[in-house]
Specification:
Length: 622
């Protein structure tokens, strides 16, 4: 929400506020820092530079910090709705996004995630979609400048919109100044990465550490003939892993973090969190030192810029993700992605079987209510089938053939499938692959439009709306991918671009179809039906206290395996959200006959049973 606080703290009061915040965290921060680095001089430099960044923080942001500190967990409000977008695809430039803020407001968006916009190599095949950063304090020139970014943040804050950005901590581009100087043989900069000329050590890493992209970027090191050494590159050869065992790396990256926060960023998404710390003899995932680093980031933020939120990207099942929230006494991330539930949702679409999804939701519902997940149907990345195969195997579903079925289904190659899309990182040896497509194309809107089948289009739109209603029913912050609100379908033109042709993720990263927004005003169009349905659902979620973050949430184990039933309770209100993950209509029995209000239609009546069309839902309030 936009700040209403006009008065700025006086300079002496402001310094006192910083001193109070530092005093609150100093001892723990110093203890964790010394545990990792045992370097008092570097810690003193860190705290002094934190003071400098606080002094430089614009008054407008300091006021917002004070307001948010008083408000508490502002990001958990039920009126929070996110949208994720690429700047160039949506509006060309940062200034273009600013010009499109009225449309973003019309979408009821209060949280805007701008996909990576920091400077990367000009060769797009070496930018990893913006995740190979060559300068953390420079915007890609074709998108604008840091001044443009700060101005956009100001305009967003005036409208009650928060800005989210990606902070790629694990690695830099090999064109970053540090990497260039390391390649020139400067020891100071070589120590900021992992260089190795011992094949035995490289082999040990290969043995102990899983590969991130075994098909497209196998191995863990890249050989540099000019140095006669290899450098660790766990993601792609042009992304050099940073050495957080070096305190200079930690300090400098924290300075970058604070610099970006001072541009007006509200949510900082920490990319690839589990990978940050490397230690020989381990799998280099989720090590205790990672939690120390994230905890220190949380405290540094609370001292300098307490209005910001840390969003962690941790791609694991919810009970394994939970440690990255930290504890009540020592919190780490404010929010985490609900990655596995997203993948399990699409598994449910393909199998028409809700059992695994219900079990997944039971785990999430059993976690403390203070844990805040970011929920989504799709994002900029592929969908990996990291499902609970232990449970699936007890139902007769084996991992390899089940993954093959999912990929065949979503490519539209199995009977009854209406999905369209493409595989990513397909491994012809293991048969493993990930999947890419827009939500609309996965729901059948692309296929129905191509075939001119009105009945199929009705079902596809209903499926798309139902899945969004299901996402809104979950606790946490829902985020929509830009274009989903107007049913944007797959863009196959990426194959004509040599720099993108090998990366099928660009199939759902097409330019925003602004021509489709005209259809929002035309009754009966696909865009009008989808946009208005989302607007209605968003309004209900904002208005009804049963959607509060602290509501009690549980699932009902209904006998039909295609029916997902979620119950939310707040005070004397009880919401029954029922979803039909089936190609066929269903007759549903309520647990007891009573009077319910259908929140979508507004109709109140006694309900004992009701008919649900295929891929439909109800929100019934008692």
């Amino acid at each position: 929400m936009a700040t209403n606080i006009k008065a700025s703290p006086a300079p002496a009061a402001a310094k006192s506020l910083f001193a109070q915040r530092l005093a609150r965290h100093h001892d723990e921060l110093r203890w964790l820092y010394m545990e990792l680095y045992d370097n008092g001089d570097m810690f003193a430099e860190l705290t002094q530079t934190m003071q400098d960044f606080y002094d430089d923080r614009p008054d407008e942001l300091k006021r917002l910090d004070v307001e948010r500190e008083a408000q508490g967990a502002w990001y958990r409000s039920r009126d929070m709705l996110g949208m994720q977008m690429y700047i160039d695809n949506f509006a060309g430039t940062i200034k273009g996004v600013e010009q499109k803020l009225p449309y973003i407001e019309r979408c009821n968006v209060s949280y805007l995630h701008l996909m990576p916009f920091l400077d990367t190599p000009a060769d797009k095949s070496r930018s990893d979609g913006g995740y190979a950063v060559s300068d953390f304090r420079r915007v890609k020139p074709e998108l604008g400048t840091m001044d443009d970014l700060a101005h956009l943040a100001h305009e967003c804050h005036e409208r009650g919109i928060s800005l989210c950005m990606d902070f790629v901590m694990n690695h830099t581009s090999d064109e970053h100044e540090w990497a260039r100087r390391a390649r020139d043989g400067e020891g100071e900069y070589m120590s900021r990465y992992f260089f190795c000329d011992n094949q035995e050590i490289i082999d040990r890493y290969t043995r102990d550490v899983p590969q991130v992209f075994p098909t497209t970027a196998p191995g863990h090191f890249t050989y540099l003939p000019e140095l006669g050494q290899s450098v660790m590159t766990q993601f792609y050869p042009y992304q050099w892993d940073l050495n957080y065992r070096n305190p200079r790396v930690f300090n400098e990256m924290m300075y970058n973090f604070l610099y970006l926060a001072n541009q007006g960023m509200d949510i900082i998404r920490i990319d690839a969190v589990p990978y940050i710390w490397k230690q020989l003899g381990t799998n280099c995932r989720n090590l205790p030192q990672v939690h120390n680093i994230v905890r220190m980031m949380r405290m540094i933020g609370e001292i300098v810029c307490p209005g910001i939120v840390l969003l962690g990207e941790v791609v694991m099942e919810p009970d394994k993700v939970a440690p990255y929230f930290g504890t009540v006494e020592k919190p780490e991330c404010h929010m985490l992605y609900n990655v596995t539930t997203m993948a399990t949702t699409w598994n449910t679409v393909a199998t028409r079987d809700v059992r695994l999804l219900r079990r997944q939701m039971d785990v999430v519902c059993g976690l403390p209510k203070e844990y805040t997940f970011l929920n989504y149907l799709r994002c900029h990345d592929d969908i990996g089938w990291g499902l609970d195969y232990g449970t699936l195997s007890t139902w007769g579903m084996q991992e390899v053939p089940h993954k093959a079925y999912l990929n065949e289904y979503f490519q539209g190659r199995t009977p009854g499938s209406v999905s369209r899309g493409e595989l990513y990182n397909a491994d012809p040896v293991t048969g493993d692959a990930r999947f890419c497509a827009t939500t609309a194309s996965m729901c059948g809107i692309e296929a129905a439009g191509f075939e001119g089948d009105d009945d199929a289009m009705d079902v596809a739109i209903r499926k798309d709306i139902m899945l969004h209603a299901y996402m809104f029913t979950q606790s946490g912050l829902p985020i929509i991918y830009s274009g989903d609100e107007v049913c944007q379908v797959n863009d196959y033109t990426y194959k004509d671009d040599p720099e993108r042709a090998e990366d099928s993720r660009y199939i759902h990263r097409g330019a925003f179809p602004w021509e489709l927004t005209d259809n929002i005003e035309r009754p009966g169009t696909v865009q009008q039906r989808m946009f208005d349905a989302l607007e209605l659902l968003e309004g209900i979620r904002r208005d009804e206290a049963v959607f509060d973050a602290d509501a009690d949430v549980s699932t009902k184990h209904y006998s039909d395996p295609s029916i997902l039933w979620i119950i939310r309770r707040k005070g004397d209100q009880e919401l029954h959200a029922v979803f039909n993950f089936s190609d066929n209509p269903r007759l549903v029995w309520m647990p007891e006959k009573d009077t319910y209000t259908n929140l979508v239609t507004g109709k109140t009546s006694p309900v004992k049973t009701f008919e649900m069309p295929s891929w439909d839902f109800v929100w019934l309030m008692r």
